[in-house]
């Protein structure tokens, strides 16, 4: 199959408007570590975010100047890019971000997605993996199947103290579930209406997702970029 001639998605905007949109999305991602947007916007912002974090890992004067020129309110975010994130991804060769498909709020809305930084406090796959392990333990299953084992490896291999953090996340989710069961029991005793539980707070950082996550929370096969650090000759058009 011939390679596509489309170098990037135009997103239905002029070049200047597209650039401003992506700058805003990437700045929000660096600040919050997880953002919800449309699938096309998430994929384009992912490309830029990967390059930005690569600049942070390079940690040179030229790289810092380039990053400062791209981010909004750069004085607030440059320390994180060249400090926290550079240290977090020191041993990771690429794939600093992940895109997860989610159900749109409305039926006629464009395909939606969450763009997140991996190995951070709002890493959704990390929390979903912890939830899967919790469910298997509750069901009395002592071993992991192939998919779960693969996900555990993915979310812990580049994360400092990954296995320990995963156990902490399992405990956190277990406590959330116990509190919800206690709340429901109390409402039943008082004869009050029991509403559906609040959307599960999958991540310790407070990030929430909508209830329906396609593919059981799994990413598409190419959602983690898996790219290695490289020169940024095509920083953004």
From TrEMBL:
<dbReference type="Pfam" id="PF01196">
    <property type="entry name" value="Ribosomal_L17"/>
</dbReference>
<comment type="similarity">
    <text>Belongs to the bacterial ribosomal protein bL17 family.</text>
</comment>
<feature type="compositionally biased region" description="Basic and acidic residues">
    <location>
        <begin position="217"/>
        <end position="230"/>
    </location>
</feature>
<dbReference type="GO" id="GO:0006412">
    <property type="term" value="P:translation"/>
</dbReference>
<dbReference type="InterPro" id="IPR000456">
    <property type="entry name" value="Ribosomal_bL17"/>
</dbReference>
<dbReference type="GO" id="GO:0005762">
    <property type="term" value="C:mitochondrial large ribosomal subunit"/>
</dbReference>
<keyword id="KW-0496">Mitochondrion</keyword>
<keyword id="KW-0687">Ribonucleoprotein</keyword>
<feature type="region of interest" description="Disordered">
    <location>
        <begin position="182"/>
        <end position="237"/>
    </location>
</feature>
<feature type="compositionally biased region" description="Basic and acidic residues">
    <location>
        <begin position="182"/>
        <end position="198"/>
    </location>
</feature>
<protein>
    <recommendedName>
        <fullName>Large ribosomal subunit protein bL17m</fullName>
    </recommendedName>
</protein>
<comment type="function">
    <text>Component of the mitochondrial ribosome (mitoribosome), a dedicated translation machinery responsible for the synthesis of mitochondrial genome-encoded proteins, including at least some of the essential transmembrane subunits of the mitochondrial respiratory chain. The mitoribosomes are attached to the mitochondrial inner membrane and translation products are cotranslationally integrated into the membrane.</text>
</comment>
<dbReference type="GO" id="GO:0003735">
    <property type="term" value="F:structural constituent of ribosome"/>
</dbReference>
<dbReference type="InterPro" id="IPR036373">
    <property type="entry name" value="Ribosomal_bL17_sf"/>
</dbReference>
<keyword id="KW-0689">Ribosomal protein</keyword>
């Amino acid at each position: 199959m011939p390679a596509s001639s489309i170098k990037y998605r135009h997103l239905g905007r002029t070049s200047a408007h597209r650039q401003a949109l992506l700058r805003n999305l990437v700045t929000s991602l660096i600040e919050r570590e997880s953002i919800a947007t449309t699938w096309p916007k998430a994929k384009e912002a992912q490309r830029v975010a990967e390059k930005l974090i690569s600049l942070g890992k390079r940690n040179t004067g030229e790289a810092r100047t380039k990053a400062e020129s791209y981010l909004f309110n750069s004085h607030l975010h440059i320390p994180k890019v060249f400090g926290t994130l550079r240290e977090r991804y020191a041993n990771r060769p690429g794939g600093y971000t992940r895109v997860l498909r989610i159900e749109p709020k409305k039926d006629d809305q464009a395909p939606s997605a969450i763009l997140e930084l991996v190995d951070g406090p709002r890493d959704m796959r990390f929390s979903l993996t912890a939830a899967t392990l919790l469910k298997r333990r509750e069901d009395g299953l002592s071993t992991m199947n192939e998919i779960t084992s693969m996900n555990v490896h993915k979310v812990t291999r580049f994360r400092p103290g990954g296995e320990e953090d995963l156990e902490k996340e399992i405990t956190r989710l277990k406590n959330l579930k116990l509190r919800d069961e206690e709340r429901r029991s109390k409402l039943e005793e008082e004869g009050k209406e029991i509403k559906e539980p609040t959307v599960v707070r999958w991540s310790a950082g407070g990030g929430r997702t909508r209830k329906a996550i396609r593919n059981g929370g799994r990413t598409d096969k190419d959602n983690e970029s898996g790219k290695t650090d490289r020169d940024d000759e095509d920083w953004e058009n």
